[in-house]
């Protein structure tokens, strides 16, 4: 039986699909995270192999495998690259293409070969896509150097707005109230609450500020200001990757840009006039790209 493998290897989980030439899903597998930047490489490949084995409990041999992976930069380490190559051999995979998670997310949302992918989850980055490969990026520098408009950025701004409200000794709005509740800080004594919130925020790894990001959904002028600024920053990041008068699709990826989110709604409004799509399942993009690799674009069928 002819089939291909698509794999979405993220930091939290890894999913694999075995898909027949006609797009029929033959098997699926799930395992822990396989991002070699956030997990020890040996653990990452073990999770990757577990997901693939669970998906390939079907007769035959995969004609091609596309892996969309967060943390592909780690494969520039020869020792890590050798570990992954050994894993492909052990799994009997002869034709493996490793792409970034951004590339498979773009392919999951559109058949277009060119366009822009804008990702905003805990971090943020935009990429220029040409012939289904990312050829240029803007952002993606991490919490210390950038990640504007991301979940980290939103959470940090929510905490900063709360500290400002406490320092002015004015009325605490819904955003500040929600932030203090999330941080477990009693606001009865404003001076104590100000000091305590600073202590709580600095006691955790900086990226943990992203846990405050969902709170900007409250109806509050301070939250609206943060949302508007985030949308402006994300749109600027996306447009920085595009050529003048480019009319290719923009694919939005990540929890911050999901349908129904305040930031996502404002980003879509600011990109009015362009074709904007939402990508929610990178493993489907990986499987389709594997079908293109194995059977050619004219014959490739999307999983369904």
Automatic annotation (TrEMBL):
InterPro entries registered for this protein in UniProt: ATPase_BadF (IPR002731), ATPase_NBD (IPR043129), Euk-type_GlcNAc_Kinase (IPR052519)
Protein name (record): BadF/BadG/BcrA/BcrD ATPase family protein
Any one Pfam family match given in the protein's UniProt record, by short name: BcrAD_BadFG
Taxonomic source organism: Amycolatopsis tucumanensis
Organism domain of life: Bacteria
PANTHER family named in the record: N-ACETYL-D-GLUCOSAMINE KINASE
Residue ranges constituting the ATPase BadF/BadG/BcrA/BcrD type domain according to the UniProt record: 5-290
């Amino acid at each position: 039986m002819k089939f291909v493998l698509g794999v979405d290897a993220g930091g939290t989980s890894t999913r694999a699909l075995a898909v027949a030439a006609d797009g029929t899903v033959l098997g699926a597998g799930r395992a822990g995270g396989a991002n070699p930047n956030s997990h020890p490489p040996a653990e990452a490949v073990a999770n990757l192999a577990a997901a693939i084995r669970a998906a390939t409990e079907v007769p035959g041999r995969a004609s091609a495998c596309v892996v969309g992976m967060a943390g592909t930069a780690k494969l520039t380490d020869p020792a890590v690259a050798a570990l992954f190559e050994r894993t492909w051999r052990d799994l009997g995979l002869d034709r493996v293409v490793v792409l970034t998670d951004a590339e498979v997310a773009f392919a999951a949302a559109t058949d277009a070969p060119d366009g822009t992918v804008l990702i905003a989850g805990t971090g943020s980055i935009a990429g220029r896509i040409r012939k289904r490969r990312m050829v240029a990026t803007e952002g993606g520098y991490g919490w210390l150097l950038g990640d504007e408009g991301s979940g980290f950025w939103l959470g940090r701004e929510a905490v900063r707005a709360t500290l400002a409200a406490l320092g002015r000794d004015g009325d605490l709005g819904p955003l500040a109230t929600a932030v203090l509740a999330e941080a477990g800080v009693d606001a009865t004594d404003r001076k104590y609450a100000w000091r305590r919130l600073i202590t709580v925020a600095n006691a955790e790894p900086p990226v943990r500020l992203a846990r405050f990001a969902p709170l900007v959904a409250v109806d509050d002028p301070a939250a609206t200001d943060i949302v508007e600024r985030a949308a402006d920053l994300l749109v600027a990041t996306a447009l920085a990757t595009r050529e003048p008068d480019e009319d290719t699709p923009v694919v939005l990826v990540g929890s911050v840009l999901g349908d129904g989110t305040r930031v996502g709604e404002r980003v879509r409004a600011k990109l009015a006039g362009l074709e904007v799509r939402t990508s929610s399942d990178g493993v489907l993009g990986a499987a389709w790209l594997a079908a293109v690799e194995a059977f050619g674009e004219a014959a490739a069928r999307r999983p369904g």
